[in-house]
Amino acid sequence: MTKKLLIIALTAMAAGIVIADDDAHAVLDTDNDGSISRAEATALPGLTEQFAALDTDVNDMLSVEEFAKFDASKAPDSVPDY
């Protein structure tokens, strides 16, 4: 189920449909700890490249607030094949 939600979220983002930051954060937070780890960030194209700049408290995790600053326009246009 989580994989399907992630694919839907990534497809919607790639198509230019706006998803609420909380929803995208929840989809990426596969271990449900409230933060996106570097490993979880790899599921969203472009997020790993912006991870260090977004992680303002330098704890190797992205909170909802930190993730909200993710600039999807700087992400690659392609969606990974699953």
* Strand count: 2
CATH class: Mainly Alpha
Number of domain units:
1
- At CATH level 2, the architecture is Orthogonal Bundle
CATH superfamily: EF-hand
Helix content: 40-55%
Question: Which parts are unreliable, with pLDDT below 50 for 5 consecutive residues or more?
Answer: 15-19
Radius of gyration using CA atoms only: 12 Å
* Quaternary class: single chain
Distance between the termini: 14 Å
The biggest sheet, with number of strands, parallel, antiparallel or mixed sense and barrel status, is: 2 strands, antiparallel
Give the SSE string.
Answer: HHEHHEH
User: What is the global morphology?
Assistant: globular
Characterize the structure shown:
With 82 residues, this protein is mainly alpha-helical. The protein has one domain: Recoverin, domain 1, CATH 1.10.238.10. It has 5 helices and 2 strands; from the N terminus they run ααβααβα. Strands 1-2 form a two-stranded antiparallel ribbon. The radius of gyration is 12 Å and the shape is globular.
Question: Topology, pairings included?
Answer:
Elements: H1 2-14, H2 21-28, E1 36-37, H3 38-41, H4 47-54, E2 61-62, H5 64-67
Antiparallel strand pairs: 1-2
Short characterization:
This protein is mainly α. It has 5 helices and 2 strands; from the N terminus they run H-H-E-H-H-E-H.
Features:
two-stranded antiparallel sheet; Recoverin, domain 1; 82 residues; mainly alpha; single chain
